[in-house]
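Hypothesis: this fold can be encoded by more than one sequence.
Test: take the C-alpha cells below, design a sequence, compare later.
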C-alpha cells in the first residue's frame, strides 16, 4: 500500500508541478503527517523532492526529473474501460476521438492486459442513459464548450420558468449530471449554474476573462449539490404502511424514510419526509389503502378530500350512464 502511494505522489507531482501537503493528503485520503513521512522516504531513496514555503509553496520535484513508474495495473485499465459514457462524449463531439485514443492505449498494453481488457468489454457495459428518451435541446452546447475551452465570455438568452433573460457570463466549466448538461459560470464575481438546454442564441464573445487559479470545478459542484439538497423544503409525516408499501416506499423518489418501527399485524409505523404537502398527497394517493397517514392532520384531510372527490366523480359518471 505504501509503495503504491509513493508512486502516486511521484506521478501527481510530475503531472501538476507543485502540490501542498493538504492537497496530497486529500487526493490520497491519508493524513498530512503521513504525507510528511512519505516525503522523507522519497528523499531518503534519492528522489529529488523538495518543499517551498510561502503562499504559493508546496512539494515539487526538481526541474527535469521524470519518473518512468507509469506501468498500468489491471484494475486501473478496467476503470478506464468503465468510466466513460459514450452518450456524453457524443454530446461533446468526442465519441470517435475517444475511441481512436482508447484503441491506441490498448495497443500499448502488454498482451495479458489486452486480453483482460477484451474480457471486461465483453462482460460489462455501462449505459448512462435513462429509460425515457431525453428531450434536452443541446443546440447551444458546442458554443458553450468552445467558450469554456478558449476562456472567452459567453452571451445567451436564458429561459426561466416565468420569463427569458439575457446573460453575459464567464464560463468556467461544464458538468453532466446523468444526461443533463449544466454550465458553471461567474457573473459579477458570483458563481451561477445554468442548464444548457434552456440557453437560446448562445454566442461566444471576443473578450477574454481570467479564470481563477483556485477554482476546482468538481469540488465546487459537490459543495453546490450538497447545499441545494439542504435547502430543499422538508415536510415530515408519520405513516402506517403495509409491508408491501414499505418495500415500495424505500425505492420512491421524493419520499425519504427516516425511521421505521417493528411490524405489528402486517403494519409498520414510519417517520417519512416529503418535500411539500402537495407532493406528499400526490405520492400517497398512488398507494391507496396500503398507507394510512397518522400525522399531520392537514395531510389526512387533504387526502380524504381528494379521495372523496374521486368517488364523487365516478359516482356521477355511473348516474349519467344509467
Amino acid at each position: 500500500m505504501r509503495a503504491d502511494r509513493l508512486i502516486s505522489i511521484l506521478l501527481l507531482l510530475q503531472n501538476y508541478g507543485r502540490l501542498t501537503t493538504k492537497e496530497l493528503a486529500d487526493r490520497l485520503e491519508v493524513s498530512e503527517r503521513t504525507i510528511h513521512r512519505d516525503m522523507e522516504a522519497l528523499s531518503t531513496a534519492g528522489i529529488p523532492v523538495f518543499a517551498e514555503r510561502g503562499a504559493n509553496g508546496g512539494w515539487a520535484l526538481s526541474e527535469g526529473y521524470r519518473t518512468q513508474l507509469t506501468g498500468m495495473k489491471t484494475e486501473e485499465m478496467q476503470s478506464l474501460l468503465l468510466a466513460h459514457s459514450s452518450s456524453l462524449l457524443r454530446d461533446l463531439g468526442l465519441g470517435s476521438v475517444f475511441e481512436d485514443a482508447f484503441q491506441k492505449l490498448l495497443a500499448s498494453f502488454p498482451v495479458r492486459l489486452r486480453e483482460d481488457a477484451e474480457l471486461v468489454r465483453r462482460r460489462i457495459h455501462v449505459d448512462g442513459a435513462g429509460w425515457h428518451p431525453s428531450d434536452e435541446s443541446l443546440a447551444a452546447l458546442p458554443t458553450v464548450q468552445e467558450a469554456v475551452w478558449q476562456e472567452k465570455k459567453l452571451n445567451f438568452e436564458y429561459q426561466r420558468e416565468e420569463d427569458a433573460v439575457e446573460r453575459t457570463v464567464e464560463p468556467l466549466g461544464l458538468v453532466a449530471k446523468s444526461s443533463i448538461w449544466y454550465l458553471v459560470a461567474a457573473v459579477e464575481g458570483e458563481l451561477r449554474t445554468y442548464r444548457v438546454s434552456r440557453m437560446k442564441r448562445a454566442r461566444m464573445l471576443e473578450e477574454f476573462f481570467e479564470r481563477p487559479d483556485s477554482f476546482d470545478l468538481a469540488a465546487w459542484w459537490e459543495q453546490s449539490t450538497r447545499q441545494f439538497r439542504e435547502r430543499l423544503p422538508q415536510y415530515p409525516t408519520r405513516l402506517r404502511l403495509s409491508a408491501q408499501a414499505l418495500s415500495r416506499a424505500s425505492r420512491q423518489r421524493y419520499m425519504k424514510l427516516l425511521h421505521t418501527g417493528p411490524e405489528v399485524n402486517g403494519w409498520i409505523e414510519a417517520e417519512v419526509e416529503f418535500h411539500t404537502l402537495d407532493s406528499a398527497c400526490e405520492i400517497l394517493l398512488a398507494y391507496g389503502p396500503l398507507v394510512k397517514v397518522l400525522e399531520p392532520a392537514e395531510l389526512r384531510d387533504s387526502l380524504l378530500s381528494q379521495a372523496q372527490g374521486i368517488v364523487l366523480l365516478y359516482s356521477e359518471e355511473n348516474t349519467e350512464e344509467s
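The chain is about 45% helix and 25% strand. The mean pLDDT is 84.
Hypothesis status: open.
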